[in-house]
Amino acid sequence: MKLDILAFGAHPDDVELGCSGTIAKEVSLGKKVGIIDLTRGELGTRGSVAIRNQESASAATLLGLSVRENLDMRDCFFVNDEAHQLQVIQMIRKYQPEIVICNAIDDRHIDHSKGSTLVSDACFLSGLRKIKTELSGVEQEAWRPKVVYHYIQWNNLTPDFVVDISGFIDIKMESILKYSSQFFNPDTNEPESPITSKNFLDSVKYRAQDLGRMIGCEYAEGFTVERYLAVNSLSDLK
Q1: How far apart are CA 26 and CA 23, in angstroms?
Q2: In which element (H, E) is residue 2 found?
Q3: What percentage of the chain has pLDDT greater than the value 70?
Q4: Cα 208 versus chain centre, distance
Q5: What pLDDT does residue 167 have?
Q6: What's the farthest any 2 CA atoms get from each other in the chain?
Q7: By the 8 A CB rule, do 45 and 81 touch?
Q8: Pairing relation of β-strands 134-135 and 147-151?
Q9: pLDDT tens across 178-209, in order?
Q10: Would you say 145 and 123 are in contact if contact means Cβ atoms under 8 Å apart?
């Protein structure tokens, strides 16, 4: 299956927090979108692998994804080496996306920046035909996405561009809340973490609202880029 957009997250819920509004919008426009989670988030303060699996599947259905897979890398301990790069390359060649979206280039959780670099490097390497990979015993063709974008997470990075998600903020927040084990719950006895406060959950929405304010809409999501953005005409810019 060829995808238009393939989004990667170090953990289940990274993509939902970072760019699920954009994903929902692209799906509504007829684009085929998939998510690849690098780990199961097994070292998270709350929940379990079984619960996270259910939550990520539920979020995938809500967002209308064409596919969601997990590479079962070790939470917090995966590295950017040949073995891990080949796992990502295999997914890029399997789905041949035009656009790849991945973790923030710099962030509080060490897996986020590691995941960002790993996926970015793999996107380049995937285009080298002398790097051989197989899927189900069949040699894969080389494939390099046209662009790689990075969503913004905990750190307040300055975006290179923003996407108007005004009609999709509700589905964004609903997709995040599918991970009920991870976020604010006044009735739980599980330990607290930096992402379990009501303030954190509210911050996701008010960041989107603030980015929207800056471009004259209600809500937006921000991204950073690896190369200059190009337009055909000044009228393409809003």
Answers
A1: 5
A2: none
A3: 100
A4: 16
A5: 96
A6: 55
A7: no
A8: unpaired
A9: 999 999 988 888 899 999 999 999 999 999 99
A10: yes
